[in-house]
Sequence to fold (491 residues):
Amino acid sequence: MERLVTVLLTVLLAATPASAQEKEQRTAPITLALPNTSWSLQMPATGFAVQRDTSRPDGNARSILAIDKASGINLSVFLERVPAGESGKDCRAYYGERLRNSPVKMEEVRTSERREMAILEYTDKEFARHMPEEVKKMLGTIEQRHLHAYLAKQGICIDIHLSKALQPGDEAPPFGAILDGVRLSDPASAGPTATAQHVLARVRASVALVQGHKAPAATSGGAVASGSGFFVSQDGHVLVAAHVVDGASSIAILLADGRRLAAQLVGRDAKTGLALLKSETQAGARYPPLGFAAKDAQFADRLFIVDGGGRIVDASIASRRAELVEVRVEGGPMEGPLVNGDGEVAGIVLLHAAPRKDAPGKVSFAVPGSAAAYVTGELRTKGKVERMSLGLSLANFEVDIRSEFGVPLPAGQAKPLPGALIKKLDHTAPAYAAGLRAGDRILKLNDTALGTAGEFLRKLGDVSAGTTVSLTVVRDGKEQLLTVKLGELAK
Fold:
């Protein structure tokens, strides 16, 4: 029987200034899983925060990407089942051939051995060649140092990739100190814990089974769609996956204590696939709502999915986008609220939107808690969800770019340059039609100066769809004034 093994990457931290959220994210373990191996990887590192954790659809490869913003070191760990996987040298040869055939300009190439790891080091002196001119001008002369450390166990190649941008005169990055903490060992067995039952006891009364009864057709009986919803208010509002109630002639909510309540549809949101219901009220009844978590779930968080039938399973975040996350489910297929250890809603798992047809029940899509909370508020107050769109992907201009590459401010410059850098642009969106381009730095929205990308998005949220706004941007060192009409996202 095929065994599923957990490859565990533990990030140990040094005491560095950070927000409480960053500290929590950095201290939690990161779990990677691959089939047919009996080994785990423990890797002490300093200050890394995970940005992405993804799996290949066939289940034979996993990867994480993490950044230590204090030092500017990027870390990626890639694990793959490959034909050549008997030793670290085999893995270095396998991946080295790929690197030689890639666009990366490899200079100052060196190979070595470090314990059971095969090392490949090189410098890319032209890595900034594809960056926007505004970014290249800010960073100045810069190159990127790379180190790949390869290990192999039971046909699995492990590629630990460290990289850092350097300016002339910078000290060599401490890659060796990070690698010295790497350990391979047998993983601890995982099993049911009392924690899951504790969480279930806290949230069980708030999670209900929702049934959408379809009117009988002329030639067949009526159908019933079922799903798990949860109370979001004491007066009986319930959030549920929209497919459960789409086309329903009547809606019923079955509570954990056996009561059955009729409900009406308040509104639905096609983008997230969520619907808000209002159950009938019973004299003196108060329904225990679940609160939304203050922050969205992180890759390292231990999470649980709870359904209306009282089941609970472990889950974890596999990948994340703005309004959608991919959730790895440890048990069978489930739909319902994704809760943290405090019983707060960090997301809503949608069973019907499972992205992996080759791994049913193992991976599902979920709506992040912040998006679900916004949808809940909009549906309660308006009965619909309004969203504005410019079609932009943004970063804080100098803060994010310098942090990503570990490049300090120039001598004599007291603080970072303000503005929101356009990283990506949807060519079908209003911003592109108005003349905005990737690499532009947005300085003002109408007459309001912008310090960060977050300020821009908050100000944008106060403007109604259909409104024309003016944007002051810097391109190639020159300011330009552009006007753009805000669009509402397609329903």
